[in-house]
Amino acid sequence: MGYICSVCNGLTTLHAACSNCNHPLDDYGRIDDLWGAYSPYQELEDLKMTNGFEDSRKHQCVHIATCPICGKVHYISIDEQQEM
């Protein structure tokens, strides 16, 4: 069985506030999709092994979110759910 991100699969939305100004953050998706032009087409588990986060071991999906007010970038780890 695999794991899925509820945010990436549209089951929930990312609700997080900026640690700098407390404004709601804009979700820009999985950080792995932003590494390069072909990263959205690579195997997700391969990307998780080389992205510098512990997301593969912890079964998390790391999203990048930005504050539209102050511009601060946040990395939000979302716990993945096991597929049934």
Précis, in short:
This protein is an alpha+beta fold and 84 residues long. The relative contact order is 0.30.
Description:
It contains two helices and five strands; from the N terminus they run ββααβββ. By secondary structure, it is α+β, with helices and mostly antiparallel strands. It has one domain. The strands form two sheets. Strands 2-3-4 form a three-stranded antiparallel β-sheet. A hairpin with a 6-residue loop joins strand 3 and strand 4. The radius of gyration is 13 Å and the shape is elongated. The mean pLDDT is 80.
List keywords for this structure.
2 helices, 3-stranded antiparallel beta sheet, 5 strands, about 80 residues, alpha+beta, two-stranded antiparallel sheet, elongated, single chain
**Number of structural domains:** 1
Count of β-strands: 5
Which stretches are poorly predicted, pLDDT < 50 over at least 5 residues?
none
Task: Write the H/E string, N to C.
Answer: EEHHEEE
* Secondary structure tally, helices: 2
Rough shape?
Answer: elongated
Q: Into which percentage range does the β-strand content fall?
A: 25-35%
Estimated structural class: alpha+beta
Amino- and carboxy-terminal Cα gap: 7 Å
Strand order, main sheet: write it out: 2-3-4
Query: For the report, how would you describe the main beta sheet?
Result: 3 strands, antiparallel
Helix content: 10-25%
CA-based gyration radius? 13 Å
Q: What is the residue-mean pLDDT, rounded to a whole number?
A: 80
